[in-house]
Structure formats: structure tokens, C-alpha cells
Amino acid sequence: MNKRGFTLAEVLITLGIIGTVAALTLPVLVEKHLKNVTATRLKAFNSIMAQAFQRAKLEYGDWNNWESNNFGESGSLKGDGEKQLLWLQKYLLPYIKTTETIAKGKYAIVALPNGSGFSNYNSLYFFCVKYSDCQKEVEEYNSRDRFIFQFTSRKGFEPYSIGWKGTREEFFIRNSAGHLCAKGKRQGGLCAKLIEYDGWEIKDDYPW
């Protein structure tokens, strides 16, 4: 019987084709995974914080009557990370699972079990997909790594939406308050709101 195997050239050509296909598809798969992780963590953070505010309200009463109210720009906690952290420890953190809490400069910084985290500054909450990004003493945000959430006694906890009127097209055009969702530092003020608007998904036209 004649037995014939693959030649070295055929094997190398096959491996080359497989390598080319992998090189083309792997980045797409990785990007899709990162988008899914980002959207999932954003949704979870929004839910966790909204529930914490509601549960604390049951214990401490109306939000506007909370001690050292930090819901406005003139709040007494502004610029003091230690006071911010003490405030969080009293009102919100009893209802949130955390792995680390620190005060750094004017921020309180909290690590969450899924590897994400947030820094608190007055009524603003800077969510970080990776906790390590939260340890920077900056009010930075973008469309991939750091996102802004806010709390108001009128609407409760939600993705930052100052200046947004309610249509999807507005997310891509700088509004009267100077916010939109675009690539670049301090360009993604409305990106968390856009992801929420799209059902906690990152669509193809999202500025990833």
C-alpha cells in the first residue's frame, strides 16, 4: 500500500493560513469581550449604587436631610477625601460589597469585588472599569475606562446626563453644558448615559 502524508511545505502553508485568520479575528474577539465587560460592569455599578441609596433612604430618611449633604457644589464634603469616605461608610458602603476603601487627596476611592471601582467627589462618582484607574487623583473620564455617574435628590443615582435633552443624536454633539460622548480625555461625559440608553450595550457607532 502506498502511504502518503503531508509535505513540510503543505504543513507550513496550512499553519500560515491559520495564523493569518487568527491574527485577523483575535483583535475583534478581544475588543468584543472588552466591550461586554465594560457594559456589564457599568450596569452592575448603576444597579448597586441605586439600591444602596434607596436602602439608606429607608434607614436615614429623605436624602436632603442626610448629614453633611454632599449633593451640591457647595456641599461641606467637597475637596476632603477623608470626609467623603466617612460619609460613604455611614450611608452607602454598608449596602455595598467592597474589597478596599481609601481616602486620597480630595477623593474617597472604593474597590469592588469584580475588579472595578469608583472615586467619589461630592455628588459625582467616577466609575473605573479597572480599579487601578481609580487611584489617580484626577477628575478624568473618557469613553472606555472611566465614566461619570451622578446623584441628585430629584432623580436619584444615574449616569451623568447634564445638558442632555433625551434623544440619541444628542450624545454625539456637544450640548449647551459642554458635554457629549466622544473619544479622548474629558470627552466622554455622556458615554455612560449613552450605554444605558442603548440597553446597557455598546453599539457599533459608539466611540470606542
From TrEMBL:
It comes from Candidatus Scatousia excrementigallinarum. InterPro entries: DUF6613 (IPR046721), N_methyl_site (IPR012902), Pilin-like (IPR045584). This is Type II secretion system protein. It holds the Pfam family N_methyl. Residues 29-207 form the DUF6613 domain. It comes from the Bacteria. Transmembrane segments: none annotated.
